[in-house]
């Protein structure tokens, strides 16, 4: 098994290295690719030094079985043929192919079988805010068809990559020292602030980040349920939080939803208001599971349940989900 990471120096690329190592992913060789700028960088993997090669058109992917790519949509589009032409399966973390009919969009706990039909040998990894939400929605959908979802997100700086985290850390220092704040990645100062704007605004006045949650949920869950999202950037390093309201066809009790959450692979319930126990980004950072809590009946509607959901954006929201897709492909004989 020969695996490639494309975009090895980025926040998600680095997390790929970490996750492959942590899970003892069954590989014989790992090859790292990156831009001309990051070519030559060295990273350690299982005690060995690996050097980043420059991503070029040619035959470098000839013997690669699985390519984990996270170098932005432009690079993914430009290099998809180079990566897949000799048979490598490209598991792509960018938004380049998510809405293409001939590219499956996969969260292994929700729709793993979709990964079998991949005419272009590309599988897309969904956006981070969608991944953690659909992991929590799936057990609810198994109890009753979901009619509608409303969600407000509280997204960490890591969603803007390693530079996003660095900018938040720098701003915190600048604010503490009474200096002018440096703003590059985010539209406004993030430290001591929140910004109700992620990605570009669309014609309907939702942002693209918000509509991704609508489009991607429909494709992954094979549902026509509409999702209305408000996506907000908050000054947290690396785990996204979401307040979710789910309207179901049948009324559901809080207890049956809690039981379904507890039984569902990939979810951890922390829900004990009496002891002030609920998931928070500070404690979920670095964890594999999606965490849910504050599970309660929506007081405005007997057919709605509302809850709080936290997931590590770089892990389950990106690198881990892609590696789990790769593991599923291997376990199901999909990699030759
Ligand atoms: C963000 N969802 O948080 C994006 C990253 N894919 O900015």
UniProtKB/TrEMBL annotation:
Stretches assigned to the Semialdehyde dehydrogenase NAD-binding domain: 2-118
Active site per database record: 128 (acyl-thioester intermediate), 240 (proton acceptor)
Amino-acid positions noted as binding NADP(+) in the UniProt annotation, renumbered to this chain: 9-12, 37-38, 158-159, 313
GO biological process terms held by the UniProt record: 'de novo' L-methionine biosynthetic process; diaminopimelate biosynthetic process; isoleucine biosynthetic process; lysine biosynthetic process via diaminopimelate; threonine biosynthetic process
MF (Gene Ontology): aspartate-semialdehyde dehydrogenase activity; NAD binding; NADP binding; protein dimerization activity
Binding-site residues, substrate: 155, 233
Record note on quaternary structure: Homodimer.
PANTHER family linked: ASPARTATE-SEMIALDEHYDE DEHYDROGENASE, DEHYDROGENASE, PUTATIVE-RELATED
Protein role: Catalyzes the NADPH-dependent formation of L-aspartate-semialdehyde (L-ASA) by the reductive dephosphorylation of L-aspartyl-4-phosphate.
Protein name (record): Aspartate-semialdehyde dehydrogenase
